[in-house]
Amino acid sequence: MRHRLKDVAERAGVSVKTVSNVVNGYQHVRPDTRARVEQAIAELNYRPNLSARNLRKGRTGVIALAVPELDIPYFAELARHVVSAAADHGWTVLIDQTGGGPEQERKAARGIGDHLIDGLIFSPLALSADDLTGLHGTPMVLLGERVDHAPADHVMVDNVAAARETTAHLISLGRRRIAAIGSQRTAEGASARLRLAGYAEALTDAGIGYDERLVAPAPAWHRADGAAAIRHLLATGVRPDAVFCFNDTLALGALRALHEAGLRVPADVAVAGFDDIEDGRFSIPTLTTVAPDKERIARLAVELLAGRLDGDRDAPPRELVAPHRLALRESAPAHP
């Protein structure tokens, strides 16, 4: 039998309103009263009727996460954290893959479908701040680096600082011919430009000249692109002693191509990536990488979205920077 709020109230000896306050997380409930209600909830195995609650609020109880590619492990891992954070609010998450195309991103920004979702967490590649202004018809939180001065709340990582720290670490290992893999000149390549800027800053700080020959473009950030970039560098006579890849999938491809070329990592070439995907902890050697706090990114995004749904939708947009760290592993260890 499915128990009701009334049953919990009777078991705890309190009013239905008090039980509702506890279930909905209101703070102004006496600790002993909250404890009695929580004990009654546990004894009765009470579960809130989320459908009825959402109906009363005019909501579906569904939010969406729209990302460019689920084939990129970073987005798959981030999605897992978003689903977990959303569950704390009783939300179901609809996951949409946009492919980074403008039309699919516009569809996502408009809310995917009329009355289908309550809010959107969105990582755009094609759309700019101007494109998004006035376009989104549902509360939205943006991720990533494509949009500056966004018309919506925004959670990001300090890509310049992270890339500078990573390159500085490679320099600290005594490396001077440090390649950068993943540059992009398209409008969609905002993350690439920021990471390249951090790489260049670290070289300047160390008195090392910027060598364009060591900067390898990658049209996509997949394993095959990382391997192709290494093969191109070696074929043109450029022999790096370290490689900073702009994401971990590029780095995994780079590791394979270096192995095929008979180069040892890290003895001959140190390698670092960006994203701290799980695969990098099991590669041979394990991958040194920038580790954005993906769980924190997801929770910040979900909490910002909850604040918009439950509070002032017209308040100025907020920009929050999530923390990161440099995870030192075998491909570029702590000491030379």
Overview of the structural elements:
This protein has three domains: 5-48, 434 Repressor (Amino-terminal Domain) (Orthogonal Bundle); 59-156 and 293-322, 3-Layer(aba) Sandwich (Rossmann fold), CATH 3.40.50.2300; 159-292, Rossmann fold (3-Layer(aba) Sandwich), CATH 3.40.50. Strand 3, helix 7 and strand 4 (140-143) form a beta-alpha-beta unit. Helices cover 41% and strands 17% of the residues. With 336 residues, it is of the alpha/beta class. It has helices at residues 5-12, 16-23, 31-44, 50-57, 73-87, 102-109, 129-132, 159-172, 190-205, 223-235, 248-260, 294-310; strands at 62-67, 92-97, 119-122, 140-143, 153-157, 178-183, 215-217, 242-245, 270-274, 288-292, 319-322, 324-327. The mean pLDDT is 90. The strands form two sheets. Strands 2-1-3-4-5-11 form a six-stranded parallel beta sheet, sandwiched between helices. A six-stranded mixed beta sheet has the order 7-6-8-9-10-12, sandwiched between helices. The longest helix has 17 residues, at 294-310.
Q: Helix/strand/pairing class, anyone?
A: alpha/beta
H-E string: HHHHEHEHEHEEHEHEHEHEEHEE
CATH level 1 name of the largest domain: Alpha Beta
Count, helices: 12
What profile does the largest beta sheet have?
A: 6 strands, parallel
Mean pLDDT across every amino acid position = 90
Uncertain regions: pLDDT < 50 for 5+ in a row? none
Overall form: elongated
Under CATH, the homologous superfamily of the largest domain reads: Response regulator
Cα distance spanning the termini: 65 Å
Radius of gyration: 24 Å
CATH architecture descriptor name of the largest domain: 3-Layer(aba) Sandwich
**How many structural domains?**
3
The CATH topology of the largest domain, please? Rossmann fold
The largest sheet has its strands arranged as 2-1-3-4-5-11
How many β strands by DSSP?
12
The residue fraction in helices comes out at 40-55%
Beta-strand proportion: 15-25%
